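Q: I have two molecules that I believe assemble together. Could you output structure tokens for the complex as a whole instead of separate predictions?
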Amino acid sequence: MAVTGILMLLFLILHMAGNLKIFFGRDDFDSYAHWLRTIGSPVLHNAWFLWIQRFVLLVAIALHAVSAYQLSRRDLKARPEKYAHRLRPTASYATNTMRFGGIIIGLFVIYHILDLTALVANPNGVEGAAYDNVVADFSHWYIALAYIVAMLALCLHIAHGFWSAARTLGAVTSATRATAYKATAGVLAAVITLGFLAVPIAVMAGLVD
Amino acid sequence: MKLTLRIWRQSGPNAQGTLVDYVLDDVSPEMSFLEMLDVLNEKLILDGDIPVTFDHDCREGICGACGMVVNGAPHGPQTLTTTCQLHMRTFSDGDTIVIEPWRSAAFPVVKDLMVDRSAFDRIIQAGGYVSVTTGSAPEANTQLVPKPDADLAFENAECIGCGACVAACPNGSSMLFVSAKVSHLNVLPQGQPERESRVVGMVEQMDAEGFGGCTNTGECTNACPKGIPQASIARLNKEYLRASLTHRR
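A: Yes, here they are, computed for all two components at once.
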């Protein structure tokens, strides 16, 4: 969970930063989208880097999901008889919603790929016109809403996930470090979420059209 | 104080259990929680009923024998307190108190509120010990222990093995218990000969016992009557990763 999660987190940081290029206008954004296909050239053939990256991410998602499933199965089996008086959760909302939030994010990723990679679910759906496709999406309030909900789920997932991954990998071995890692998790979650949310908000506010 | 006690009654390991209500009229706020249960049991015996079975021993918070889930909290609502050290003044007149045993597949109910915690004993047998030279006593200062290491070992040695961490964990994981033992012994020079085999052995036994997996919720630390820190779990993971790379079987 930890290793694959961190891998996906690194991708999200780059993805979020790349998305912000939309604020520099159509030409900049579309040429950036085109550039992604030329990374590694001429050593790598056109779009090869992209396919390698997609493959790695797909493996990461699959392993992350399988681990989550196995962990959940094991956890449910570890407490066959539930408490009659429910335990008061002292952990944060983010911590208690990891499974649920993860499923929301997983479903969103499938939709997101159909929408802006495969373009079959996109209202515009023109290849190479990344800017117009994004604007077409967020001109519909329900698409923007789904996106915002997914990003908020992502925010909570990262807030617990980063910190939990650090623990799993044996990094947070003192109370002082715990504070530092918790703060880092919070900042990462906030920056990534705000970065992603900037795009639909800008489109809806008419800053990007 | 007048209290309604809703207690888990189960006549044996394989019997069907249920919550049963008992009313106690004259509970003193100065009583400990276990003394209050003693009063209930005396009443039950006089009435010809079967008394409520629960584990207890030292009644001063250091043995780890007592433990029950009181109103959804292992060892009750007071932090850093075992059930025996919990006093009835924590509750109010007229309260209904729900008392349940630890719930874990690895801790089967023996009777009523008593669970079988031998899973913890088997985890200890798998590595929770150090090799010592028997015979004449060694010179006291031959093995130097840096102060921070001694403090860390002591903080983790406070674990009394009561099982509240397992009872509190939404996943029924025993990581805090194992991490306290591993942190305690692996940081000391006396624990070095078994440093790798200890962590590998204890983790394997923990998995074999049917405990759940840790998702770092921190419920264990919050319920722990000895305040074993969550950081110990990170240290266990670190020791385990290290041992996985270097351990020879």
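A: One point stands out. The mean pLDDT of chain B is 96.
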